[in-house]
Design a protein that fits this description.
The chain is of the alpha+beta class. The protein has helices at residues 18-22, 96-101, 110-120, 126-140, 155-163, 168-181; strands spanning 4-6, 12-14, 26-35, 47-52, 58-60, 66-67, 75-84, 142-143, 165-166, 186-192, 196-198, 203-205, 211-219, 223-225. A hairpin with a 5-residue loop joins strand 5 and strand 6 (66-67). The relative contact order is 0.13.
Length: 226
Amino acid sequence: NGGSAIHPERRLLKVASDDALRQPAKRFSYKVLLHNTGSDWLFIAGSPEYLSIPWDTLVESPNGGFRVPFAETDGFTYDVHAALRHTTVPPARLTLEQRNFHLRLPPLDPRVLALATQLTKGLKTDFERATAIEQYLRTTFRYSLKPLDHEVDDPLAYFLLQSKRGHCEYFASAMAVLLRAAWIPSRVATGFQSGDFNPLSGWNVVRASDAHSWVEAWMPGEGWVT
């Protein structure tokens, strides 16, 4: 998956830049207890500014995620100080390396590339092109948890060109690929929806059934947009 190793000082990691820390925002702290996730990724709500972790090493992915390569995945705890930020400060531009990374595509069925061209033909801005792709998936496809009744050679092409139904991972993958085919940097985010608040314990309980996938596209002047 790539990424760079980080060694926090006294197990406290500063994530945000000094400029971000000076910006006005609603800030909050919380504790996360992960139980039997089978994953070494950290799940974070909001824009993290500091992480307090019980490990000496973290790995930061090219997309800004964090994982603990030697954690016991049957359960671990960490603390997060985060921000909800509404700012008019323009985001930093993607470097050429970052842009190329978020435009990479695997070998594709030529009909998928043709579909991306068809959906975005004549549109002038990345926002217009992204919106057209989003609306096509929203209005033409159906959400379904039913698994495929037979194996297919290319699940993405089958979803886009034949079945036109599937769960969130199909929708997210399809939109990310169509965006990249239209030369819009994109990425798939995976995590959880909000879960349920337990008033007795004071915890938000997030279960495997709350798992979700979605798409972020890079918009000039706005940064990553969900």
